[in-house]
Structures are given as structure tokens and as C-alpha cells.
Amino acid sequence: MRIDEGFVGAIQEAEKLEVDKQDPLGKRAVEIGSVRGDINTCIHSIFQVSNGFHLAQILAISDKESRGRHYTKEWPEELRETLRLVLRDMLIRLHEVVDGDEDDVGRIQTVGILNAGLKLQMIRCWGKKKGGVILYRTSDIHEYPEVVEKIDKLWHLLKLMMLMRVVIEEVSEVVCRKKKKRKDVEDLLMGHMNG
């Protein structure tokens, strides 16, 4: 896994860091990030899973002010909305790869994680048709156990990670079948969309 360079500029924008305007990658990503407006979140990392191609992405995102906070049932809405927007952008990019096959479009998903301290929550994003309605499914908030008596919480976290792995493997299979040229897939998933 590695950080997705296609989102470096957006990450820097979210963290209010300076971006080199001479870098076309940075420029493009900043434009993407600036559409979102002033986001009070910190994107820690965006990972891509590679199997010969750059295929699927997992986004880890957390609230800048989450340290010390204890979310019991709900995250701030702006945090969830930020993650949904990024997952939607990733999904649209993946739909371009499998253009023309509705069955494959329906199988493509993106996965994200909301994280604050020991708590995390998974959000999945998918659409049945290219250009159609985009759906989201949010898991319960799970917490890493602090004491042995709550070891069952660890099982819930492991199930969440296994589900993410299954989603990534399925997306990888679909994209591999559709795109044979490594460079085309890399460019598409890294944000170099022509046209």
C-alpha cells in the first residue's frame, strides 16, 4: 500500500499547508480540494491497494479536534459528509474504468474509515448505474478494547477489516478484467482524467 499522490494537494489544502503551484499534480488536486470549501478535518492518509495495477483505495480520515473527544453514537456531520464526498469522487473514477457494463458498475465500491482515538467507523459507497444515484452504508462505531474483559470488541473490528478486504478484492477483480493497460488504470485512478 502507498499514499495516493493524486490527493496530496487536497490533503495539503485540508491541512492548510502551502502547495507548490508549479506542480501540475498539486494544482489539480488543490482545485479538487477547494471545491469542498473550508473543511475542518484532517485527512491522515489515502492508501491505494495495488495488484499489478493501482486498483482500489481506502481512505482514513479524522477530525482535527477529535483528540480527547469521545464520540459515543454519532460523528460530527461535516466529518461524515467530507468522507462521503471523497468516496463519491473515487467511485466516479472507478466507474470510468468499467464504462458500459452495468453489472460491473454495480459491483464497484469504495471504502472509508472515520477515526477518532480508539473508535472507528466504516463507510461504503456504491452506485447501481454510472451517473445514477450514489448510495452509502455506514457501520456501527467500533472501539478498540482497553481491557481484556471487552475483548469481544476486537472481534467486531476484525470483522470490519475483513469486510473491507473483501470489497477491495472484488473491486480489484472487476478493474483487472476491464483494463489491461497498466498506464491507463494508473492515470485514471491517480486523477489524470482526459477530456
Count of individual beta strands? 7
**What's the N-to-C terminus distance?**
29 Å
- Point out poorly predicted stretches: 1-41, 63-68, 191-195
**Major beta-sheet overview:** 7 strands, mixed
Reading the helices and strands in chain order gives EHHEEHHEEEEHH
Summed up, the domain count is 1
Shape estimate: elongated
Tell me the fraction of residues in β-strands, as a range: 15-25%
The value of Rg in angstroms is 17 Å
Helical stretch count? 6
Mean pLDDT: 63
Structural class: alpha+beta
Percent of residues in helices: 40-55%
What features would you describe in this structure?
The protein is an alpha+beta fold and 195 residues long. The chain has 6 helices and 7 strands. α1 crosses α2 (24-35). The chain starts with a strand and ends in a 6-residue tail after the last helix. Residues 1-41, 63-68 and 191-195 have low confidence and may be disordered.
Observed structural traits:
alpha+beta; 195 residues; 42% helix; disordered N terminus; 7-stranded mixed β-sheet; single chain
Summarize the structure.
With 195 residues, the chain is of the alpha+beta class. Helix content is 42%, strand content 24%. It has one domain.
Topology:
Blueprint (H helix, E strand, L loop, with lengths): L1 E2 L4 H7 L9 H12 L5 E10 L3 E10 L13 H21 L4 H6 L1 E8 L2 E9 L6 E5 L3 E2 L8 H27 L3 H8 L6
Helix pairs in contact: 1-2
